[in-house]
Amino acid sequence: MSALLEARDLSVAFDTPRGRVHALDRVSLSVRRGETVGLVGESGSGKSTLALALMRAVAPTGGTILFDGQEIGHLSRRALRPLRRRFQMVFQDPYASLDPRMSVRGIVTEPLVAQDYGPRARIEARLQELLAAVGLPPEAADRRPAQFSGGQRQRIAIARAIAPEPDMVIADEPVSALDVSIQAQIVNLFQDIQARTGIAYVMIAHDLPLVHQIADRIVVLYLGRVVEEGPAEALVARPLHPYTAGLLAATPTVDSAGRPRLILKGDPPSPIHRPSGCPFHPRCPAATDRCATETPALADHGDRRVACHFPGAVEPPLSIARPD
Amino acid sequence: MSMQDTGARGLLPRRPRALSLRAADAMLATGLVMAGLLLVLTLVFGLNPPASANTGSLMARFRPPALDGYLFGSDQLGRSMAARMAAGMPWSLGIALVAAVIALTIGTVVGLVAAWVPGWPRRVIRMLIDTVIAFPSLVIAVTVIALLGRGFWPLAVTLGLATWPIAARVVYAEAMSIVKREYVVAAELAGVSGAKILLVHVLPALRPTLLTMFAFTFADMLIAESALSFLGLGVPLSAPSWGNMLSESREYLVTAPWMMLVPAGAIVFAVVALNLIGDGIAAASRRRSGRAS
User: Fold this and answer.
1) What is the pTM of this model?
2) Which residues does chain A have within 8 Å of residue B8's beta carbon, measured at their own beta carbons?
3) Are strands A225-231 and A217-222 parallel, antiparallel or unpaired?
4) Which positions of chain A have pLDDT values less than 50?
5) Which of B177, B181, B189, B202 to mutate to test the interface with A (most CBs of A within 10 A)?
6) What is the ipTM of this complex?
7) Which chain B residues touch A109 with a CB distance below 8 Å?
8) CA nearest B9 in A: which residue?
9) CATH code for residues B31-43+75-292
10) Could you tell me the strand order of the sheet in which A217-222 lies?
11) What angle do CA B107, B153, B103 make, to 5 degrees?
12) N or C, which end of chain B is more exposed by having fewer CB within 10 Å?
């Protein structure tokens, strides 16, 4: 099956007063139609930059992005506009991503109006359909974002994203700003929509169990590089990269008391001063001299890929229960 | 300090600023009343100029202010200062208004475009802004008036064209922070065109800034109009603009100081009104954004 989205060797670098920051370093990623790809990593791993680069909100400094076979990595802002209908985004903070001066009608129909979806009556009908789909009452259309709770606002943002019937939605930590009690509802909403429309998702999170719940495949990023990729079940059951194992171990579980824990020591290093060799070696419990000098390539490992000299060397001490 | 429960709105307790806010509201209200008075008088005298503004009686020269029909005194030709001040209102306020509208319109369009377009077009626009600001506006004014002659429109257009870069720089700086907001990025990713994003998302967010800047620019233009007229570069000498009146009063400063005090007082009144409005709007918008965050 051909990929809907295919990023190859995607790099994004920013020039800062303290040096060049490689936010993304030759990241390759593919998303098939109807599939959910989870992206995990700590803060600063490049997850959000990857989302913005795939959405072409940021211009990549290297590599290519193929969307349904078409190169979009180097298209101009103007040339991208007609394609935007097909890939949409949900942001992390529904308090920042909705214009406080606009009504919900204006917000949700904005992509439809921008893309000449049809006559006004058709847009209004689509609006009502969308409000129903995300579980908001019809009268919500005339209210402003300030009159809604965080969870409701995220529903509005989701309605806006799916309005033009896109093939793919990229969601950047769509539930991490919400109350825990609301998070499950929003996750369920994403899954309902996928079941009905066959949309593909790129779900970004720092919470591995959450991604495990909804993703078909998981991609783990560390310091702007893919360190491990594979089917969600296999990756969580038996992580090959020590960093993945560390992320799993860092997740609190109900029966975690008293068990040995593999702790990710320290913070991720600054992407300006990248460690030599394997970027993870200063924090890795299984690091050897080789890891400090030789950078491991992302290599195939069955149906998975991992960038480690000693894949599977670190066993996760805990099994993660699915949160549902 | 008492910490109130702010519920889901956030962790910050509401700051106890009620007193200063009431003061800001009072400033805004006072400014609006003063400006409203000026507006009504301008309309009245603009439509029916008082006849006594240009016809004086040589029997009544240099009358000091008194309740004998010359409330604000009379000038060297025996013309009523009150009537002249009133007749000057449409000139002075009209020129300042038109100049402020021109400056803000050009400044807003240029500032918004500079904030949206990346790369070399932005650098060119910023260079243009800096270049025009670096030009001494008095020199521009002298040149333009030498070419176009005196009058309402040459003066209004000149002042507007000399002032727009200042507005453009403020709009540019403010718009640069607005276009980074997530809802603007979201609109772009939804496929909305740049022009529409600027119009629908960025311009409304600029409204408090523009209102404040309008009040202050209006006041600046009023002073600039007076200064140019004072130098003889403004409106026709026969027109009773406040600047012209000030200019005429120079020779009689010692013998008839009211000739200077009346137009100067009118200018101060209008400038204070506009500054009160500007400060009041700024305080109100700060309060609103403080609440929203």
Assistant:
1) 0.82
2) 149-150
3) antiparallel
4) 259, 318-324
5) B189
6) 0.87
7) none
8) A149
9) 1.10.3720.10
10) A87-90, A168-172, A200-205, A36-40, A217-222, A225-231, A304-306, A299-301
11) 10
12) N
